[in-house]
Specification:
Length: 128
């Protein structure tokens, strides 16, 4: 099992933290259901995305928050905070049995994202 360091530039997400870090405890990466199997990064999405505009989403986000001593310690030390990554995009070359991602780093992107489909795993590479 491996876990990539997540860099995320989706600053519309409740889990986003300055420094392009993700504060979620866990993220799940999926194929965009509308497009079927992913062929390019834009066909993938981060299911843990919560648009930060609504209160309901803030409450939802708190259930998946990587909060507590680890975070404050990490802030103090400048350590990278990164969520556990589960991925269902099994035609990506970094995908591993068990829904793991064996990339060293992934970049989640989605300029002006307002819904999960607007987010992408930019590190996706088709293995077919
Ligand atoms: S879009 Fe995904 S990776 Fe980015 S901050 Fe939100 S939950 Fe984390
Ligand atoms: S790089 Fe590939 S395996 Fe890793 S999270 Fe992104 S789509 Fe999934």
């Amino acid at each position: 099992m491996s876990n990539p360091i997540v860099k995320c530039t989706v600053d519309q997400c409740t889990h986003y933290m300055p420094g392009d870090q993700c504060m979620a405890a866990k993220i799940s990466v999926y194929n965009d259901a509308m497009k079927g199997t992913s062929a390019k990064p834009q066909d993938t999405l981060c299911r843990a995305f919560h648009h930060r505009k609504t209160m309901g989403d803030m409450v939802g986000a708190l259930h998946n928050a990587n909060i507590g001593g680890t975070v404050s310690a990490a802030f103090m030390e400048g350590t990278q905070i990164t969520p556990a990554v589960e991925c269902f995009v099994n035609n990506c070359k970094f995908w591993q049995t068990g829904n793991y991602c064996n990339a060293e780093h992934i970049h989640v992107a989605g300029p002006n994202a307002s819904k999960t489909a607007d987010t992408d795993c930019d590190t996706f590479e088709n293995n077919r």
